[in-house]
Design goal:
The protein is an alpha/beta fold and 385 residues long. It folds into 2 domains: 181 residues, Glycogen Phosphorylase B (Rossmann fold), CATH 3.40.50; 194 residues, Glycogen Phosphorylase B (Rossmann fold, 3-Layer(aba) Sandwich). Helix content is 50%, strand content 16%. It has 18 helices and 13 strands. Strands 3-2-1-4-5-6-7 form a 7-stranded parallel sheet, sandwiched between helices. It has a 6-stranded parallel sheet with strand order 10-9-8-11-12-13, with helices on both faces. α6 links the parallel β5 and β6. It is elongated, with a radius of gyration of 22 Å.
């Protein structure tokens, strides 16, 4: 069968590449054409457009590049109709993908599957109308989404497991912890490691890293602090805040870092889930300018009680969340002290991780999704005969 995939950012490229690999095991005749990235290209098929050409985030960047985004969308729509795939598989990236789905529903009979469903439970819940109209099958990677879509909105979905569980499990099976080798290869000493994950974008880093740096000063002699460098951010940018402190920056080593860390300070996102799956106690922190106003806006706009995936999956506060005006060096310092070895909250947080992991389920998300997708497409083909 012919599969057309659309992934608009690095995480989507990663998850889509694993789905493609799984689809090839379920369908030996699989052909791929896609908007995506290098990881998808490594699986074969035809890369029509790299996500870097369209990956703009934030109101101003999107506005400045709107003509390029719209041009890319029109190209994508025409390319799909010309190729006539058996299915279009959308991967996250809802602003772009939901518009493509609406176009296809109006101009074709090509089924549209959504892998990694849009996070409309956090905000923009009105998008359920577009999903209901234009998406034929929805595949979820977060267990609490089942109740949201099926219980609240009566829209059936498929929970297939979480691909981050697969990625962490695979890494751990192939790379057993080796403290001595990790230290030697990165020029580290024998002190325990604490990882700082200050975000992937410049604004996130400039908002969060200075406060992290101030908070960790009391432990400068006892621990070595390492920043997980974000792709595309050079060392000079970090050195604005680290130049006078003993701190290392490592790029492309997030998993090795977490594997050898005793604690972490993490901005919200998939990184919170990764830290939990590596069983690294963490403090989730996300500073925003105009803190009190941002906190008020969060309560008015966001429809969820937590911002970290760890707490959302567990449905309770497993990890502390310091958001907006709550993200102060003093608050961060206090919560970090409670999760360090011997800290009062460390054991409870690690127990909460086990509860979260049980809810996520076992590895196998891409395989589960691929198996269900191929079966659904075969059933559709039989129904047309």
């Amino acid at each position: 069968m012919k599969y057309y995939l659309i992934a608009g950012e690095a995480s989507g490229d990663l998850h889509a590449s694993h789905l493609m690999a799984a689809l090839k095991t379920e369908d030996t005749q699989a052909e791929f054409r896609y908007y995506g990235g290098d990881l998808m290209q490594a699986q074969g098929g035809t890369l029509v457009c790299h996500y870097r050409e369209l990956a703009y985030m934030g109101f101003i960047p999107v506005l400045l590049h709107l003509s390029a985004i719209l041009r890319g969308m029109r190209q994508c729509q025409r390319d799909i109709l010309q190729w006539q795939p058996d299915v279009v598989i959308l991967v996250d990236y809802p602003g772009f993908n939901l518009k493509v789905a609406a176009y296809l529903k109006e101009h074709s009979r090509i089924p549209v599957f959504y892998y990694i469903s849009p996070k409309i439970w956090a905000w923009k819940e009105y998008r359920i109308r577009s999903i209901r109209r234009n998406i034929d099958e929805l595949f979820s990677i977060l267990p609490f989404e089942v109740e949201f879509f099926e219980g609240k909105h009566h829209y059936p979905i498929h929970y297939v497991g979480n691909p981050t569980v697969d990625e962490v499990s695979e890494y751990q099976s192939q790379h057993p912890a080796d403290v001595e080798n990790f230290r030697c290869s990165n020029g580290l000493d024998e002190r325990p490691v604490i990882t700082l994950m200050a975000g992937s974008r410049r604004q996130e880093i400039s908002d969060n890293l200075p406060r992290m740096m101030e908070a960790i000063r009391p432990w400068a002699d006892q621990y070595q602090f390492i920043i997980a460098g974000a792709p595309g951010i050079d060392s000079d940018y970090y050195h604005q805040w680290t130049a006078n402190q003993r701190i290392s920056i490592l790029w492309n080593q997030t998993y090795p870092l977490l594997q050898h860390s005793c604690a972490a300070l993490v901005t919200s996102g998939t990184a919170t889930l990764e830290a939990a799956l590596f069983r690294v106690p963490q403090v989730v922190c996300y500073y925003m300018k105009a803190g009190r106003l941002a906190s008020l806006g969060r309560r008015l706009i966001l429809k969820i009680p937590y911002i970290s995936l760890v707490n959302l999956v567990a449905d309770r506060e497993v990890v502390p969340e310091l958001v907006a005006d709550g993200m102060t060096p003093a608050n961060l310092r206090y919560h970090l002290s409670t999760i360090l070895p011997g800290g009062a909250a460390r054991k409870a947080q690690l127990e909460g991780y086990e509860e979260m992991a049980l809810r996520l389920g076992k590895p196998g998300a891409p395989q589960n999704a691929a198996r269900q997708m191929v079966q659904l497409l075969c059933d559709r083909a039989l129904a047309r005969q």
